[in-house]
Task: inverse folding
């Protein structure tokens, strides 16, 4: 998908509608992340809202009900936005969210998909190709406090693992996502302990060239070159058969 630089301002009416649509069910969220596709003037007035998009002469119509939300996130990676506007986040969607993204990007080429955080429009993309890997990025506008809460809930992308040993199956249910987050924390802790042990492990000092070794023979300077006819030939690279 082709991302366009955003400079978005949401009207009070649209903010209220989108916020209510995201707050479905009894679960209380500390943050809301929703993605909205374009609607039509032919849709029910209660099911759409209008958003000013830079470069468009008129406000664009979007559907209030999101195509996927924070409930469909399986893993994430946050980074400072290049524009200086908060943070960006790369999201890996679960099975349901990934399927929705795949369908949308195959059937709505040329249309705009709007990203909202806590019912505020923060970024958008113009759909120009199918996205089948379940990965989508919000490039800017995510507040630090939202990133902090997200990192408490979702594992980093580098620690995201399949729920099945037989096939790739990203966590989808609440229980699977809690397990995925727990396993990621265990991996991070284990890596930290391993690095700590490696740093604490004493290392033998490098031998001094010409000094006797343990077997009484003089040592030679370390080199990655092969002696050849009195000269030195640089170690050739490993060759891999095609």
Result:
């Amino acid at each position: 998908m082709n991302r366009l630089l955003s400079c978005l301002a949401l009207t009070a009416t649209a903010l209220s509608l989108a916020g209510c649509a995201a707050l479905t069910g009894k679960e209380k969220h500390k943050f809301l992340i929703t993605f909205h596709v374009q609607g039509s003037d032919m849709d029910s007035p209660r099911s759409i809202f209008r958003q000013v998009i830079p470069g468009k002469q008129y406000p664009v119509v979007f559907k209030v009900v999101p195509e996927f939300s924070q409930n469909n996130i399986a893993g994430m990676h946050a980074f400072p936005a290049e524009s200086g506007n908060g943070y960006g986040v790369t999201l890996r969607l679960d099975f349901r969210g990934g399927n929705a993204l795949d369908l949308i990007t195959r059937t709505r080429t040329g249309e705009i998909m709007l990203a909202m955080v806590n019912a505020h429009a923060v970024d958008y993309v113009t759909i120009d190709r199918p996205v089948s890997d379940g990965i989508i990025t919000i490039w800017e506008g995510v507040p630090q406090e939202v990133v902090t809460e997200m990192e408490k809930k979702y594992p980093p992308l580098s620690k995201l693992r399949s729920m099945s040993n037989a096939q790739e199956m990203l966590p989808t249910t609440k229980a699977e996502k809690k397990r995925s987050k727990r396993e990621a924390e265990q991996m991070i802790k284990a890596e930290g302990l391993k690095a700590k042990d490696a740093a604490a492990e004493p290392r033998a000092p490098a031998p001094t060239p010409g000094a006797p070794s343990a077997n009484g023979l003089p040592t030679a300077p370390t080199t990655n070159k092969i002696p050849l006819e009195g000269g030195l030939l640089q170690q050739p690279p490993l060759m891999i058969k095609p």
Observations:
- The chain has four helices and twelve strands.
- The longest strand covers residues 73-80.
- The chain has one domain: 2-193.
- Residues 33 and 117 are 5 Å apart (CA to CA).
